[in-house]
Amino acid sequence: MKKFNQTIAIRVLFIAVTIDALLMGLDFLTTDSAWISIPFWTLNLPGMALLYAVLPQIPVGSPGILSTLIFSGLLSALLWSAIAALLFRHRHVA
């Protein structure tokens, strides 16, 4: 039986949140951000796909867009960490 690897999940979670925060900050600081948007949307693709279900309830405006991007980034980081922990799990010796 294989076991869920929590240390890898935590490491991937922090790495994904850090990369997402850096890409979001660089996106707001630079005017030509075409090279930043590709890794940003690749990292946030799982969260954005799940976020479309609740998107009509989010108010229109800058705070709504910013909270949507932050929530999708956190949700994507959780999904990427769960995927990595399940792929790189240790074998449990009975």
Number of strands: 0
Instruction: Give start-end ranges of low-pLDDT stretches.
Output: none
Q: Helicity range of the residues?
A: over 70%
End-to-end distance = 8 Å
Q: Which percent band covers the strand fraction?
A: under 5%
- Dominant shape: globular
State Rg.
Answer: 16 Å
Structural class per helix/strand content?
mainly alpha
Order of helices and strands: HHHH
Main beta sheet: strand number and arrangement? Answer: none
The average pLDDT value, as a whole number, equals 80
Number of helices: 4
What does this structure look like?
It is built from 4 helices and no strands. It has helices spanning 6-29, 34-43, 45-51, 62-87. Helix 1 packs antiparallel against helix 2 (34-43), helix 1 (6-29) runs antiparallel to helix 4 and helix 3 packs across helix 4.
